[in-house]
Design brief:
about 650 residues; alpha/beta; Substrate Binding Domain Of Dnak, Chain:A, Domain 2; Rossmann fold; 6-stranded parallel β-sheet; about 45% helix; disordered N terminus
């Protein structure tokens, strides 16, 4: 635990601090303790100068020029750092895209009637995918269409020829940029495999060529695997629409069976949520002494998935998973894949809590394992809920310490389809009002504030809240996903009433449309929704012909998982300005760092920035947005000109 006194200031997460204090009194270790125990961390690794890609290593490059300047094979700092960057991006692409593959399998099983409890809920989304994949729909049954769409989606992972089909949704000029650079993504598995091959000993040794592959493998995720995951999940579980929900640790109660769902793939959590509402299960919980039934609370992106579709409470993000267990009030923590700490099992053993793994890809030593498949998900969800109900009686009431915190109200579920509908209505759904209000300056631009919440930032600071408040005060519309969204949801930023903190122009638009100035768009795979929303802005006209011309930018303050770097890279490769609130992962190789933060912009139109001082990032994003406005010429006050008869004759009637 940190020795210095925690400051008592407005930005602190008092809920988390109170639980951590209680844990310290009980002698329980947290992720923040383990982070402190790792100090000082390896300087070679953190700056990208450690190579372990063959048995002659590990090789370290001395950044000060006093020691070795190449590895045993002769690889220099640029090659080693670029390979390191590529492998991180490839790993992130594999994580998100494998999620997409799982959804494609479920899609096919559902279409064939082999997955009880699942159904195609959004037919419009199904037909949209059918059109992209050239699947005929006329005169065919829904299940036939769905099965072929699922098969086509699955083929995107391993097809021998061609490119990702979903790239056609990008602006035409952006597609031409990718074609010119040779980075249009091919089969997802091919790009990940080639990335690992290229970054091995003795293969690709030109850092720009290596980063080029990082762009292509990231695009295979953003415009491939992750986008497939989002769109197919929408077709299966319903496309998010505005819904009211609650967020924070206070969602759990003493008189309910409390079940936490944690991870990223919603197949399991969807069934757990359905079963928890079954009158039979509620009756069993009542009989076990839980008079208020069953409470489901989510952590990480599983929480975001359930929140944006069903309004099921969001309990917290990544760095709160141990704190939630430490309340002593959790009967079961049901996990699938990604961002699950192994330490959860040891901590749960201090209480009555059971950690239950459900995926063959993600077992944890000491946890219970109940294998959930597409075919048995409904039955296994019932088994899991019954285990939680049976465990309710094993509570030690003296150790229960649920924070007495007011749950934050949230209004979430802003998919790109929903935003379009809210701006124009059912028959005139359009981004035109948003484009017009960006052009006239009421809204200066759009910022994506997405990504992780890691243990490197202690709960006495909540930088996402400070950043978002500064952005909206400067009339920048904020769109969020992932743990960053979860943090702002807990902070009370995602309600229409929060518009009072927005600048006058943004506030006027929010009042007219009925939206918060901070839009929750889903989980981390749902950054693909932001890609499509940006494509809509371009298609609507008046803001340039490509992503690189839009007054838009993005940030992740404290990235943790490889997926975050992948997301950043596919936005950069799509033409966006991206700021990460950490030191550069290639800081030890100045040439690679300069290329990512300057040179790559000449090729893709996007670029990176790395700034560990979080207080500077809002100004960096605003400056980038204003620069794009200047280039578009929309910051200039132009004389209003009325059409005369000659002008009218020149108009084309469509």
């Amino acid at each position: 635990m940190r020795k210095e006194k925690v400051k008592n200031y407005k930005g602190e997460d008092q809920v988390a601090l109170d639980v951590l204090k209680n844990m310290k009194e009980q002698g329980l270790e947290s992720t923040f303790d383990r982070y402190q125990n790792q100090q000082p961390q390896c300087g070679f690794g953190s700056t990208g100068l450690c190579c372990r890609h063959c048995q002659m290593g590990p090789c370290n490059i001395d950044p000060f020029g006093r020691g070795a300047q190449t590895g045993v094979c002769g690889a220099d700092a640029n090659t080693i750092a670029a390979r390191h960057f590529l492998r991180i991006v490839a790993a992130g692409s594999a994580a998100h895209s494998d999620h997409g593959r799982s959804v494609a399998h479920l899609f096919i099983s559902t279409a064939r009637g082999e997955a009880p409890g699942y159904e195609i809920k959004d037919k419009e989304k199904l037909f949209m995918l059918a059109e992209i994949f050239d699947v005929k729909t006329e005169g065919r049954e829904l299940k036939e269409i769905a099965e072929e769409v699922g098969e086509m989606g699955l083929a995107e992972f391993g097809k021998a020829y061609g490119y990702q089909r979903l790239v056609v949704r990008a602006p035409e000029n952006r597609q031409k940029v990718w074609e010119k650079l040779g980075i249009t993504p091919r089969a997802i598995d091919r790009e990940v495999t080639e990335s690992m091959h290229r970054s091995g000993m003795g293969t690709d040794q030109d850092f720009k060529n290596i980063i080029s592959q990082a762009s292509r493998v990231s695009l295979a995720d953003g415009w491939g695997g992750a986008m497939l995951a989002t769109e197919m999940q929408d077709a299966l579980f319903g496309t998010p629409k505005p819904v009211h929900g609650k967020a924070n640790m206070g969602v759990f109660k003493k008189d309910t069976v409390n079940v936490v769902v944690h991870g990223h793939e919603p197949q399991v959590s969807e069934m757990v949520a359905v079963v928890a509402q079954d009158p039979e299960m509620i009756k069993l919980a009542n009989e076990a002494g839980a008079k208020d039934g069953i409470t489901i609370g989510g952590i990480c992106c599983t929480a975001n998935e359930l929140l944006v579709r069903h309004g099921i409470p969001l309990a917290g993000h990544l760095k709160m998973q141990e704190l939630i267990i430490a309340t002593g009030a959790i009967e079961a923590v049901v996990v699938d894949v990604q961002c699950i700490m192994q330490a959860d099992v040891d901590l749960s053993n201090e209480f009555h809590t059971k950690v239950i793994t459900t995926s063959s890809k993600a077992k944890i030593s000491g946890a219970s394992h109940i294998e959930v498949t597409d075919e048995n998900a409904l039955a296994k969800a019932k088994e899991i809920i019954k285990i939680a109900i049976d465990n309710y009686g094993n509570r030690d009431n003296e150790t229960i310490n649920i924070p007495k915190v007011k749950q934050s109200d949230v209004v979430v579920g802003f998919s790109h389809e929903t935003i379009k509908y809210m701006l124009g209505g059912k028959f005139r759904a359009s981004y035109r009002p948003l484009n017009d209000n960006i052009i006239n300056g009421r809204i200066r631009g759009v910022a994506g504030v997405v990504g992780c919440a890691s243990s490197t930032v202690w709960p006495d600071k909540r930088p996402y809240l400070d950043l978002v408040k500064e952005l909206i005060a400067n009339n920048v519309l904020v769109v969020q996903t992932g743990c960053a969204a979860a943090e702002c949801a807990r902070g009370g930023l995602m309600v229409p009433e929060f518009k009072k903190y927005a600048g006058e122009g943004l506030r006027e638009v929010c009042e007219a449309v009925g939206i918060p100035p901070v839009l929750h768009s889903g989980s981390c795979v749902d950054n693909s929704r932001i890609l499509i929303a940006l494509s809509e802005l371009v298609a609507e006209g008046g803001l340039g012909n490509d992503f690189s011309e839009l007054p838009a930018a993005g940030t992740c303050l404290d990235w943790m998982h490889e997926k975050a770097l992948t997301i950043g890279q596919y936005f950069v490769a799509s033409g966006a300005y991206i700021v990460f609130g950490t030191e550069s992962p290639v800081a030890g190789a100045p040439d690679v760092h300069k290329y990512l933060t300057e040179g790559i912009e000449e090729e893709t139109g996007g670029k990176w920035a790395f700034e560990p001082d979080h207080s500077k990032i809002a100004k960096m994003l605003i400056a980038a947005i204003e620069h794009k406005r200047d280039l578009l010429g929309i910051n200039e006050k132009k004389e209003r000109k009325l059409y005369d008869m000659e002008d009218r004759r020149k108009l084309e009637v469509v």
